[in-house]
Amino acid sequence: MPTISHAILGGAIALVFYGLTNSPSWNSEKRFTERMVILFALNSFIGPDIFTMLHAFNINPDGIPIRSFVHSILGWPVWCLGIMWIWYYVINLKSDEQTKLSRKSTLLLLVAAGEIHFYLDFLDNGVNLIGFGDWRILLTLEDHFLTGTSYPYGPLHEIAPWFSMTEMFIIGIVFMILLIYSLFRWQLKYTVLIAGAFLILIFVLYFLFGSVVFAHENDFGITLYFTLFFLVPIILMILAIE
Predict the structure, then answer these.
(1) 3-class SS at 186?
(2) CA distance 36 to 83
(3) What is the torsional sign of CA 74, 36, 86, 53?
């Protein structure tokens, strides 16, 4: 994915968090600070491409075995455990107790930034699940997330062939009613739990009945892709706010 796309998306998300948490209507002392914006935006921009950027200096990074490890879904968080100490020092230069980032926030923002980076890379040529040197396990949207025709029927389809999109629609309506009710009547944590239960149920029914419950469209793969590479990073950013 062209580098400028990473800069635009990462910077935009960071600025949205900054704007929301620093607005007069924000009812919490926790803030997404200027240092958080810089840390997240820079690492969603360059982060997993740290070795690929050597091309800009006419240096071929293909001989660096760890390059494919860093630019992988499982490798990036491990890499962050090491670079967190460097970023923790750099991002806190000339900070005080009010502006200093904790190690936890630094690590969470680094991981979130890399996964947002992969969110865009998947739209191009896919991303390594893991890799080292020339060996890699590559995931792509076409082969691994466009599931509508690759998994049409599950093991329970023959037992209950009547279970299809109609029943899924009814289940969805029930959960929407529960979510609306919980927003007005219960604490936010219960709304989150209901939403999580709905997401888990979607995955379970997909495996049991196949994509027939989504009219053979790509709902499962798209939901999984969005959850892993957008929703989870956003949650990590929320947890990083201090």
Answers:
(1) coil
(2) 16
(3) positive
